[in-house]
Amino acid sequence: MSSLTKTSTSSSEDEAEQLRRGPWTLEEDSLLLHYINRHGEGRWNLLAKLAGLRRTGKSCRLRWLNYLKPDVKRGNLTPQEQFLILELHSKWGNRWSKIAQHLPGRTDNEIKNYWRTRVQKQARHLKIDANSVAFQNVVRCYWMPSLLQKMEAQTQNETWQHQVLMWPGEQNSDSEQSRDACVSIGNMSKVSEFAGYQTSPVSVSGNDTLASMDCYSYGNTSFYDVETINLAAAATALSEGIPNPVNDCHLVDNDWVNDGFADHGLRSMGEPWELRSFH
DNA sequence: AAGAACCCCAACCGCTGAGAG
DNA sequence: CCTCTCAGCGGTTGGGGTTCT
């Protein structure tokens, strides 16, 4: 990024010539903060001039909203926030500002960056379109449940009920592997309260296939419910080498995982692709 | 140790809609 | 209506830091 715009001849262009671009300095931040504290925000072009900033109004607005505003939250997104982003994006698509409205202190820019750098990256590694139904299923079937687990782990000390589903034959195992292999479901209504969802527990049948899935729901949507998952898309995904989450939870045994995730250090990034195989 | 590759994120750009004149 | 300005939104870029080879 250049620090100053190119030179020109007319007076309006002379003004443009003086406009700064690129990273903000401490002095500029201070000027902007000071001005907004005294006069409030809005009328950004005028504000930029009156504050003595050689910046466009646009630039000032962005700097304020994304960085200087006191309620802007810094730091990594929590599992709750990540879950909410995934869920709201599945509903609204790339409506970043709308999504941001539901994450206090987070900016649309931050959410957009999260989506592009984390979520779309996963899609790239899986060689599927991030906007495809197949990828949405992957998100719903693997990522979101894992985030829910993380959220549960955070709230384990609370009093609400927690239960763990075990695979058939794994109930008595105390190994780390079996604990990983099973999928925990807690009281999802508690977990999902923050997202404003009505939840209801999903009963798991004795069917081995069903029992090998983690199941939860919110609203009328039951994950892993055959009516919810687009089986055609899942079949397509399967034909493309992507495991059908309904029938295949042996992730670590699958080349998809080994090739796509492990090689890219995703586990070390703390991403939720951490289901273990079980035998 | 050094260069390459990758990743993150702040900031920019272009477009659109609302509102004023 | 039409034009202009402003605010806001989503897409994109590129600098700097980190990790990999």
TrEMBL record:
Domain HTH myb-type: 16-68, 69-123
Keyword field: DNA-binding, Nucleus, Repeat, Transcription, Transcription regulation
Main subcellular location: nucleus
GO-annotated molecular function: catalytic activity; DNA-binding transcription factor activity; sequence-specific DNA binding
Top-level taxon: Eukaryota
InterPro entries xref list: EOBI/EOBII-like_plant, Homeodomain-like_sf, Myb_dom, PG/BPGM_mutase_AS, SANT/Myb
Pfam families noted in UniProt: Myb_DNA-binding
Compositionally biased tracts (Low complexity): 1-11
Keyword Coiled coil recorded: no
Subcellular location: Nucleus
Residue ranges of every copy of the Myb-like domain listed in the record: 16-68, 69-119
This protein's GO CC annotations: nucleus
Keyword Repeat: yes
Protein name (record): Myb domain protein 116
Biological classification of the source: Eukaryota, Viridiplantae, Streptophyta, Embryophyta, Tracheophyta
